[in-house]
Each structure stands twice: as C-alpha cells, then as structure tokens.
Amino acid sequence: MAETPEQQRIGLMFHKEVPDGEGMLFDFRVSRPVAMWMQNTIASLDMIFIRADGTIANIAKATTPFSLATVESQGPVKAVLEVAAGTADRYGIAAGDKVSQRIFGGR
C-alpha cells in the first residue's frame, strides 16, 4: 500500500521487476483525477485506475520505463493499482470490473 505522500512519490521506482501476483496500491483517500509517470521506474507496469466504488475506470497497459510522460486516469479515481506489465491481459482484467479491497468498502 502506498498511503503516505512519500510512499506515493516513490511507488515502484527502482524495482527491477514486479513479481506476478504482487504490486502496489495507491490510496488517494478521495476521488480525483490522477496523473502518474514512470520516472526512475525500471519495470514496465500496468496501471489500473479504480473509482471509489471499486470499479475499474481504465487501464494503462505496458507503460514505458523511465518515461516522464503522464499516464492519466481519464476521470476521478480513488486509487491506482500498479502491477507488472501484462497482468491485466493475463488475468482478463478490464475496465468495468470490480475490485474488492477494504479501501473500497470490501474486506
């Protein structure tokens, strides 16, 4: 979980890989438009943008390592889940799917 501003600033920077089934969930506490980037991020990621009700708003697949280009949520979201590139396709994760986690009112 990346909950503090410092944890969110660092995210998965400098990680050479993200193991299958692992990642980092960024909890922004309130819904808002979000823009991420890949500065100092070695591993390509899928960024899953999640609304306050746990619905996936959109997914940025296979982001470019070290890029300073912004990756945007395309609307207000409460959280972003960063996982290894290819995870969304491998597990059939798509916009409109629901995520169950305590920050979305789940367990």
Summed up, what is this model?
The chain is mainly β and 107 residues long. The protein has helices spanning 5-10, 87-91; strands at residues 23-36, 45-50, 56-60, 71-84. It has a single domain (5-92), classed as Sandwich (Jelly Rolls), CATH 2.60.120.1140.
CATH architecture descriptor:
Sandwich
Shape: globular
**Quantity of strands, as a count:** 4
Span from first to last CA? 15 Å
Beta-strand percent range? 35-45%
Low-confidence stretches: none
CATH class: Mainly Beta
Question: Can you characterise this structure?
Answer:
The protein has helices at 5-10, 87-91; strands spanning 23-36, 45-50, 56-60, 71-84. It has 107 residues and is mainly β. It has one domain (5-92): Jelly Rolls, CATH 2.60.120.1140. Strands 1-4-2-3 form a four-stranded antiparallel β-sheet, with no helix packed on it. β2 (45-50) and β3 (56-60) form a beta hairpin. The longest helix is centred in the N-terminal third of the chain and has 6 residues, at 5-10. It is globular, with a radius of gyration of 13 Å. The mean pLDDT is 89.
Secondary structure topology:
Layout: H1 5-10, E1 23-36, E2 45-50, E3 56-60, E4 71-84, H2 87-91
Antiparallel strand pairs: 1-4, 2-3, 2-4
Output the keywords.
single chain, 107 residues, mainly beta, 4-stranded antiparallel β-sheet
